[in-house]
Amino acid sequence: MVSAHVPDLDSLSLLLEIALAGSLGGAGAAHGISQPAVSARVRTMEALVGVPLVERTARGSTLTPAGVLVAGWARDVLAAAEVLDAGIASLRAVSRQQLRVGASMTVAEHLLPRWLVRLAAERPETAVSLEAMNSSQVERAVLAGRVDLGFVEGPTVGEGLTDEVVARDRLVVVVAPGHPWTRRRRVDAAELAATRLVQREPTSGTRAALESALAAYAPLAAPVLELSTSSAVSAAAAAGAGPAVLSRLAVADDVARGRLVEVATSGVDLTRLLRAVWVSGRRPGPPARDLLRIATTAPVRPRP
Q: Which of 93, 98, 150, 242 has most Cβ atoms within 10 angstroms of its Cβ?
């Protein structure tokens, strides 16, 4: 605990200026304050220390023997403060120039590349690391402090997290060419819920969003396959393993090339919100705030 008798750093610096300039006016000019302000600061220091520190004469001002001692100690204190200030500045610079991002597979593969290109143009000094994982893993990484900002695609977020909607996405039903559903105008919600699908793993945002949309028909049919990436699910569906429900972002290329066929649905809203998440009570740093702004203003479209 700092003693109540210790002057503040600015006052100690002023004491050194008096010793160097030899006058209160000269010290004030070097310090950017008036001579009366210097006199007031000296009186305050002397009251704190309890002994005279400056001797005023017709020829100027000099330090008393006690003032010389205090000034010597002050040099060490001010030098240590400069080291501390430089260290803090270094930490702040590092935090401004590094951004760790965790994102669900859909966001990481189809949206973040464009966002990060814009961020790099605006902040070329910022080094960004990106880790792709499912939405539950993203939330855990944010809470554990392993990433600064997360992007998830589930219908809700866990406790301890603040979220902001950055985009809207839509899940679509896809099947292999030749599947019986390709000859129908649409599949209703009840049939979709009763059909064994090729699914993502239970902790993925895509799986959670589908289960939430079909909650009125729970329990859903058991998956015919559970796979850990959207590309694996779409490949399995294209090979004829069964229908799948994936982000339109993830299947746009396969649908355009005829490897998958999109099937219309009725009685179910497959729109979902994509969210950014960070630890509640902690304001995102400047790079994270810039990425949030980019994400909320960029158009959402399939990657070409």
A: 150
